[in-house]
Amino acid sequence: MQERDIQIRGFNIRFPLDVSMAFSANPEDYTNRGNIITPLKDRIDSQIITHYPRQMEVAVQITGQEAWIERGGDVTVKVPQIYREILEAVAFEARNSEYIDQKSGVSTRMTITAMEQAISAAERRAVLNNEAETTLRITDLYAMVPALTGKLELVYEGEQEGAVNVAKHIIGKAVNRIFKNTFPDPQKRQSDTEGYNPYHEILNWFAGGNFLEIPETISNREYKNKLDSVKGLSDTARKFFDENRDDLYPVMDLIIEALHQNSKIGKDDIDDSNTYTDMLGSMLGGMTGFDDDDFSEDF
Fold first, then answer.
1. Low-confidence ranges of the chain (pLDDT < 70)
2. 3-class SS at 215?
3. Which of 41, 66, 149, 210 could form a disulfide bond with 163, CB atoms 3.0-4.6 angstroms apart?
4. How do the domains of the chain map onto residue ranges?
5. Which residues neighbour 162 within 8 Å (Cβ) at sequence distance 6 or greater?
6. Beta 76-78 vs 133-135: how paired, if at all?
7. Residue 182: exposed, middle, or buried by beta-carbon count in 10 A (0-12, 13-18, 19+)?
8. Which CATH class is domain 56-182?
9. What is the three-class DSSP state of 224?
10. Are 179 and 255 in contact (CB under 8 A)?
11. Do 274 and 218 contact (CB within 8 A), yes or no?
12. Are the CB atoms for 223 and 214 separated by under 8 Å?
């Protein structure tokens, strides 16, 4: 191959090669010094240093192109744009996480697999409820935890916290990151700047002893009815999110999850169901969290 031709032993025939070969590897896989081994480097025309997608729109485009999204089956799963961005933000957050071994990196293949698992979870729910179509939900995003635990290498601190807990934490940070691109920061005192708090009515509903339980396999109709029962939730979603009505309920779901990520309401995700309650009630219920102050997810 180095001589750019190949011959058959025993026959006086030579075939010129007209091929181009590309090798891909992480730098730490080369040698202990992080270099390509000398015999291989002598035979390579050029070494190109690449990087992960730096813009959200580019990352979304790559996953949309490579993931198995359009499956042509009996169930159609719609993925709202804001959920596509959350999925990509998971990779961005993982690449900055102190619990992830950055030498091993966070491949874009992780988001491709994560997207496929989230869609599969939505498909399964639709099949169980005999529905022809559905939309991605927050519970579907957490169904991609195996994609993270299977592809992310943890450092010692991450292993101490546990792979599943770290994966859920990263997803929570991604939810919070994308949420704040569209909605006001729940941590800021909105009433001081705008004359009102957009989440006040929602939080008061939970403070009144109400709770919101969303099982993973709940039907579309029940899902919408449960979200509609939260006072002020629909109005807040419509005020800040300018999309079609099909995306409204997943966005309402996102608001609830984001309020939990900002420690405004509590959450219990036991038995394949997310139950959101007043934060004080969750604390009194004995829920525990991480020691790290940055962790807002309760487990």
1. 1-4, 26-37, 189-195, 243-246, 281-299
2. strand
3. 149
4. 56-182, 190-284
5. none
6. parallel
7. middle
8. mainly alpha
9. helix
10. yes
11. no
12. yes
Query: Which two tokens mark 133?
Result: 């179509």
pLDDT tens-digit profile of 45-58? 777 878 889 999 99
The DSSP line for 64-111 is HHHS-----SS-EEE--HHHHHHHHHHHHHHTT-TTB-TTT---HHHH
CB neighbours of residue 190 within 10 Å: 16
Backbone angles phi, psi at 212, to 5 degrees: -120, 115
Q: How many CB atoms lie within 10 A of CB 217?
A: 15
CB 133 within 8 A of CB 145: no
Token digits of residue 21 = 């070969």
Tokens of 52: 């992960």
What CA–CA distance (Å, rounded) separates 112 from 69? 10
Reduced to 3 states (helix: H, G, I; strand: E, B; else coil), residue 277 is strand
DSSP state string for 172-195: HHHHHHHHHHHS--TTS-HHHHHS
**Tokens read off for 149:** 């635990």
Tally Cβ neighbours within 10 Å of residue 11.
7
- Give the span between the Cα atoms of 210 and 244, in whole angstroms: 28
User: Any idea of the CA torsion for 164, 167, 173, 179, to the nearest 10 degrees?
Assistant: -100
pLDDT, tens digit, for every residue of 224-256? 999 999 999 999 999 998 766 668 999 999 999
Tokens of 96: 């900055």
